[in-house]
Structures are given as C-alpha cells and as structure tokens.
Amino acid sequence: MGLIISYIILALYSIALLLIFFYSLAQLNLLVNYLGYKRRNQTAPKFNLLDPKEIPYVTIQLPVYNEEYVMERLLENIAKIEYPKSKLEIQVLDDSTDESVIDTAKWVSELQETGLDIQHIRRSNRQGYKAGALKEGLETAKGEFVAIFDADFLPDSDWLKKTVIYFKDREIGVVQTRWGHINRDYSTLTRIQAFALDAHFTLEQVGRNAKGHFINFNGTAGIWRKECILDAGNWQGDTLTEDLDLSYRAQLKDWKFKYLEDVETPAELPVVISAARSQQFRWNKGGAENFRKSVMSVVSAKNISFKTKFHGVMHLLNSSMFLCVFLVSLLSIPAMYIKALYPQFDIVFSMLSFFVLSTIILFVCYWFTYKSIQGSGFDNFVEYIKIFFTFFSVALGFSLHNSIAVLEGHWGKRSEFVRTPKFNLNNITDSWKGNKYLAKKLSPNMILEALLMMYFLFGMYSAIPLNDFGLFPFHLMLFIGFGFVFTKSLTARA
C-alpha cells in the first residue's frame, strides 16, 4: 500500500514539475523574441493628426464602482487629455452603490460646463459587472475608437496622440500600452507586484506580439476599434477577465493587436494584502475560466500557426501554473521521505533538476525585463537578486490562494466580480487605513496558510534526520512566503 501511494505522489510530483518546466521554456522563447524584436512603430502607417480630416472620433470609457478616493483625481486627469473637443467623448460608466455617486455627478457637471463632452451614465443593475457596463456604454458611444481606463489610471495628456494614430492600419483592432506604477516603492508588497507586472508588460506582451502570437488587452490603458469589439461578439460577462476573453475572440477573427512598450500609463498598485488577494483571485480564476472557454477554439483554429497555438494554450494556462507550483510544494516533503525509504526511486529525483533549471530560466528572463525598466549595472543586479527571491517566495506564499481560484475557474464555479479597492496613495507617507472598501473579514484561507507555514518549517527540520538538504532552500522560501502572506493578512487591516 505504501509503495502504491509513493507511486501516486511521485507521478503527480513529476507531472507538475514537467509542466512548470514547459512553462519556463515558453518564457525563454518569449525572451528570445523580446531580445530580437526591432521596434516597428516608426514605420507603421499612422494617422496624421495635423490633418483635421484624419483625426478620428474617440470615446473614452471610465468604468467605475464605488471609487470615492480616486474619482476626483481620475476626472481631473482625464480632462487634461489633449485632443480636439469636437472629436472626443467621455463616458463615466458609474455602477456605484454608495454616496460617491453624488460627488461624481457634481464633478461631471462642472466638466460639462467647460465644454467637455462628458456623460455620467448610470445603470439600474450591475448585470455583467464591468463587461456589462462597457457593453451598455458602447451602445451610445459616438467614437470609432474606444479608450478604456480603470479608476486608478492616470494617462499622460498626450496619451491619445501616441496611441490612436496606429489605427490607420485597418487590421489593427487594439492598441495596448504598458502599465506604470506610481507607488512602486510604497512597500514590499507593491515592489513585488510591480516586478511581476513589469515582466508581463515587457517579456510576455512584447515577446508574443513580436511574432504575431496572441496577446491580451489588459482591461485598461488601451484603446479598441469599436468595429473590432462588435465583430468579435462584444463584451461578455461570463468570465471574471472579460478583457482576456474578448482579446482571444478578436484575434481568432484575425484582428491584429499592437502593443506599445514605450508608452507608459501610470497606475496605483494595491497596498494592502486583502486588496491584492481579491485582485489575484479574480485574475487567476478568470484565466482558468478563459482556458475552459477558449482553448478548443485556439487548438482547432485553421487560421493560426502551430507555434501561435502553443503560446496561446500556455498563455491561457498561465494561472494554472500556481496549481502546479502548489502541488510541487505540498508533495516535496513526502517525496523527501520516499527518497529515503525507497532507493529505487533515485532516478525519479533527477526530475528535481527540472525545477532548478526552470528557476534559472525564469531568473534570466526576469533580469532582462527588469533591466529594461530599471537599468543595468552591478547595483541594479544586486537589487534584482533581492527582489527576484522576495517575489519568488511571496508568489509561493500565494500559491494556495491562487490554486483555489484556478480550481474554481476550471470547475466552472461562478462568483461575483470583486473590484480591487483604490487608495489614492501618491507617496510613502500616505496611509491606507480607514479605507471603507477594504474587506473587514479575515480570509478563511489564512488558517491553512498558517498551517502550511508550519508544514514547511517541518520540511526544513526533516532535512536534518534525513541528511538531505537539497530542498532546504525551497522549503525556506515556502516558509517565508506563507509566513509573509499569513502575517500581512493578519495585521494589515483597516
């Protein structure tokens, strides 16, 4: 019986390790694409905005929900967008259920008096959540192109001039820009989030876009061709990541996406772990939901190459890597004891080299993306090493939380779209305490995370009697990661 259980444990352990390895190889291929990419923005056909006949009509949509702390900042910033007023419309798609509605209506009215074409659009219900709001706004949108900004984004005044010009190419359906982070250095948590997002917005978006593979509109800081949205089936609220869903439907219909790495759109990162938890849960569950919804369409598509299909499947499986990581973590301690009890399995433990190699590949990939934004040099490399292993540890600490999200997504369990609370924190001295939108209840997962912290402490101890220290660094990072997530969840509450 013990031998059979050992076979099952090692089989699951090995499969998870191999999937992580394939994921790292896909990332390595994206790095090769990224490094070999020659920016073609200068040679692409562009609208001449100096010619009034070529200036297209644009609608800016601002989907908001209970954004008391950032609405004034958002509207003040959007009002500064440099674009002919006769060709610009702004829709404030306000699904709010609190008193922020009153202030928003007042600010919108004040902007209307300046001659700005801005509308405060309210719905009687939140059906479809953000996707429903965008879809309803689209019904009356005057613009041929539709820019979308979440409440915490602060585009530069010349943002439209840098983006809408690329739609002269009739095949372009979306132009997406890179996110910036106004509070990157607020805390360890914000630095980790910025690090992970920077990798996505450099390595992944550029790496895929450079070779014509599918990329995703990131829900904000991008602009759509209205015709593309309608042709792809419009916004749909049956997943938690409506942006990824529409992106794949559009690209399956041969619309091209253009990614502008050089155009940064600043935004605010969640500073409290409960807010980061809700955001992570939505993104990861939505990713799994989109895998269920779109993977067969990608695999069976006749109009895309095998390599684009491979990267598409890996892209849709991104969030599922957390499940693989959690399985490897959980089974690593039983695997140590199996190795000691059954020497015949030694060959299986050579699989561990795949995990080490995967880590090295990701370390190299993330370095190139880190230095593209932060710069190279010895000091930056030392800082990179610190942030990489901090990120790695905390990502491990989130693996239980995110795995639950992924499983719910694959199982088709429906849940409410939970917006990430915004804070309006512009510098390190600003405080998030007292934010009324923060979750007051502790996550039930916290108990499991505390137990896992102790479990991996036991894993480190086990290295001593077994005289096997190969997994000690891994278990140390797991202990630190789960400890960080648990203690921050326990203490960082409003």
UniProtKB/TrEMBL annotation:
The keyword Glycosyltransferase applies. GO terms for molecular function: glycosyltransferase activity. GO terms for biological process: cell wall organization. Signal peptide: none annotated. The chain crosses the membrane at residues 6-32, 316-335, 347-368, 446-464, 470-487. It is a multi-pass membrane protein. It comes from the Bacteria. It is found in: Golgi apparatus membrane. It holds the Pfam family Glyco_tranf_2_3. Keywords: Cell wall biogenesis/degradation, Glycosyltransferase, Golgi apparatus, Membrane, Transferase, Transmembrane, Transmembrane helix. InterPro entries: Nucleotide-diphossugar_trans (IPR029044). This is Glycosyltransferase. It comes from Pricia antarctica. The lineage of its organism: Bacteria, Pseudomonadati, Bacteroidota, Flavobacteriia, Flavobacteriales.
